Amino acid sequence: MAYRRFEGVDHTAKYARYRPMWPSHVVERVLSYLEEKLPAPHDRAVDVGCGSGQFTQLLAPHFNHVTGIDVSDNQIQEARKMNQCKNIQYSSGPAETLPLNDHSVDLVTSASAAHWFDLDKFYTEVDRVLKPNGCVALLGYPVRRTAVDANPNGILLTQLLSDFDKLLVDENCWEKGNFISHDGYKDLLFPYSDFVRDDCLTLEYEATLDNFIGYLRSWSGYIKYMEKYPESGILETLRDSMLKTLNMTSSEAKLNVKHNVFILLGRKPGP
Ligand SMILES: C[S@@+](CC[C@H](N)C(=O)[O-])C[C@H]1O[C@@H](n2cnc3c(N)ncnc32)[C@H](O)[C@@H]1O
After folding, report:
1. 77: Cβ below 6 Å to ligand 1?
2. Which residue, 45, 61, 112, 263, shows the most beta carbons closer than 10 Å to its own?
3. Whose C-alpha lies nearest to ligand 1, atom 4?
4. Distance 53 CA to ligand 1 centre (A)
5. pLDDT band at residue 1, thresholds of 50, 70 and 90?
6. CATH number of the domain at 9-142+176-204+260-267, out of 3.40.640.10, 3.40.50.720, 1.10.340.30, 3.40.50.150?
């Protein structure tokens, strides 16, 4: 049974607007692993748990066909609205039953999503759809370890963010999947013995304070907190505390945001 948490129209709209795109060096890392045994040109990639297509779009220049799959209809609608690539098709459905032929796929990816899947069933599907020497890449960044400082004076805001996170922990707003991601998938079982992990890459960007607060609104832990306490203004309080610490107005506040990325890469045995 698929885990449901990214379903509400309001949540998916925030997701589409505020979640960061992945940097191109992450997709390059995945492609370099794939191409060790399966050289370009590549026919088909599948991005599972694609959300509004934050990672899916990066695959488009490297494959003839890209399929983005997500169990949430609303995420898929957002992905279709944002799609500018003719070779990407988005479709709703669970990771545990992929709508693809046997041995038809060069690369299966899942960005910030595999911790929500029934992994035994997902891996059975991965093995069924991959070609020999095809690869699977699971990647993520622990959202709760986001590092943030202010540009240009470098004042660290990470402690304020940790206090906000602690409130969500104390109120049991984070789920099992969030904890798996928080740990960088370190105990996740992987289906193939030809396997590497890479913890060297980062996702970094500059955001206005208001866009950063918008990103926090897309956290599933925050959504759960607001379901419990709909009248709460915890993010407004956090925003005010950040401005006070920076001694800035909201239009002046520009933040540097940094996530550490982890990538698990595995290859199906060849012929
Ligand atoms: C945190 S979002 C990641 C979205 C996007 N890949 C990104 O990098 O930002 C996780 C996504 O996984 C989807 N998801 C969760 N369980 C799923 C399942 N069993 N099958 C397919 N998608 C699933 C959710 O609907 C959600 O869109």
Report:
1. no
2. 45
3. 51
4. 10
5. very low
6. 3.40.50.150
